[in-house]
Amino acid sequence: MDSKTTLILEKLEATSEEYWNISHQTGNFISMLIKATGAKNVLELGTSNGYSGLWIADALKYTNGHLTTIEFWEKRQCLARKYINECGLSDYVTFKIGQAYDIIKDEINEQFDLVFIDANKQEYIKFFEVIHPLLKKGGIILADNVTSHAKKVEPFVSAISNNDEYQVQILDLPDGLLMAYKL
């Protein structure tokens, strides 16, 4: 990671509560996972101000991959675009604005190596329904906030944990990160 990206990540960490960003540890884990698996095509639900997207795009620069990120709030996505551009990572990112479920269902028909979910917690179960067919065999779903928002994401956690096509583990990272491997 270059110094410009590191500085912007540090700047965004100061606003993490306002923008509901993932933790530094979670960002680092996702970055290492992308590099270790050689993931090339990643989908992110919940761009916010671009904090997680910076971690992901920087890792995809290493694997020569691409991130498609979806955000409902235009103001947040404008910030994300600004930071991605400042870090020279815009070639690795496609931004989409609107309801994630509708965009996935109506506009996306490609296969993904990794999907990161960090959007409306009560909709995780709906997201899973439309993501499942788009995730390659051997692909990974990561879902943030599974312990901090356990009641809201319980239908999703239950559905994916009881699905024979997935091996699931909840990782002890801040706010809880669910990792599901598609068998």
Would you spell out the secondary-structure blueprint of this structure?
Blueprint: H1 3-13, H2 16-19, H3 24-37, E1 41-45, H4 51-63, E2 66-71, H5 74-86, E3 93-97, H6 100-107, E4 112-117, H7 124-131, E5 135-144, H8 150-161, E6 166-171, E7 177-182
Parallel strand pairs: 1-2, 1-4, 2-3, 4-5
Antiparallel strand pairs: 5-7, 6-7
Structural summary, described in words:
- This protein has one domain (3-182): Rossmann fold (3-Layer(aba) Sandwich).
- Strands 3-2-1-4-5-7-6 form a seven-stranded mixed beta sheet, sandwiched between helices.
- Helix 1 (3-13) packs antiparallel against helix 4 (51-63), helix 3 packs parallel to helix 4 (51-63) and helix 7 packs parallel to helix 8 (150-161).
- It is globular.
- The protein has helices at residues 3-13, 16-19, 24-37, 51-63, 74-86, 100-107, 124-131, 150-161; strands at 41-45, 66-71, 93-97, 112-117, 135-144, 166-171, 177-182.
- Strand 4 (112-117), helix 7 and strand 5 (135-144) form a beta-alpha-beta unit.
- The model has no long low-confidence stretch (mean pLDDT 96).
- It starts with a helix and ends with a strand.
- With 183 residues, it is α/β, with parallel strands linked by helices.
- The chain is built from eight helices and seven strands, in the order H-H-H-E-H-E-H-E-H-E-H-E-H-E-E.
Strand order of the biggest β-sheet: 3-2-1-4-5-7-6
CATH topology: Rossmann fold
Going by helix content, strand content and strand pairing, the class is: alpha/beta
Helix content: 40-55%
Radius of gyration, in Å, reads 15 Å
Uncertain spans = none
End-to-end CA span = 31 Å
Q: Give the overall pLDDT as a whole number.
A: 96
Strand content: 15-25%
The biggest beta sheet, please?
Answer: 7 strands, mixed
In DSSP terms (H or I, runs of 4 or more residues), the helix count works out at 8
Tell me the CATH architecture.
Answer: 3-Layer(aba) Sandwich
Record field, number of beta strands: 7
Q: What spatial form do the alpha-carbon principal axes imply?
A: globular
| CATH superfamily annotation | Vaccinia Virus protein VP39
The first-level CATH class is given as: Alpha Beta
Number of folding domains? 1
Query: Helix-strand pattern, N to C?
Result: HHHEHEHEHEHEHEE
